[in-house]
Write a structure and sequence with these properties.
about 190 residues, mainly beta, 9-stranded antiparallel beta sheet, two-stranded antiparallel sheet, 1 helix, globular
Length: about 190
């Protein structure tokens, strides 16, 4: 539901910008970073949540280290990963944030197996900026996008689960990141 609402919101705020990058103008394309984007733009706390109370936080440091935390509320689960992030800029104008060891929570937190199915096959994703299918085994890849109406004009988009699925992204948090109390085991 949140994904659908976000897709509608982007469509309203940035009409016509939800297509692949192709020859789209980076000033108006949501899938390419803003012209003012630098690596320093990524430093800070990024977060997203869903209607079931799951909160995902990505903390990016200037020294290229990151912490990625996912806390689910309905079925209490906590997944935490750390590592070194890398920014990839492509000739197409698209930019990708690589987070080795982080997982995509959309497949469920009970299977933190490197974004793979139970038989070990990497999940396929639809990467919107370059309009292609990708896999991201053992890492999370986020598309650095241009959202003019949020902090630093930047959103970190998850690749789509399929060509027709909605969009999900993280926004920079300008307030302290909330923490979820962990229940103690009986």
């Amino acid at each position: 539901m949140v994904t659908v609402l976000r897709s509608l919101l982007i469509g309203i705020l940035l009409p016509g910008s939800l297509t692949g990058c192709g020859s789209a103008d980076p000033q108006t394309s949501v899938w390419k970073p803003a012209p003012t984007f630098t690596e320093a733009t990524l430093v800070g706390h990024w977060q997203t949540s869903d209607t079931q109370g799951t909160i995902e936080v990505l903390t990016m440091q200037a020294d290229h280290t990151f912490q990625h935390t996912i806390d689910a509320v309905i079925v209490p689960q906590h997944v935490h990963s750390t590592g070194t992030w890398r920014l990839e800029r492509r000739a197409s104008g698209c930019a990708y944030l690589h987070l080795p060891g982080a997982i995509d929570p959309r497949h469920g937190l009970d299977l933190p197996n490197g974004n793979r199915t139970l038989d070990g096959t990497p999940y396929p994703y639809w990467e919107v900026c370059e309009d292609r299918t990708i896999t991201m085994p053992d890492e999370l890849l986020l598309i650095v996008g241009n959202l003019r109406n949020v902090a630093r004009q930047t959103g970190l988009f998850f690749p789509r689960l399929g060509a027709d699925s909605g969009d999900a992204w993280m926004e920079l948090s300008l307030t302290p990141v909330p923490t979820i109390p962990r229940s103690s085991a009986p």
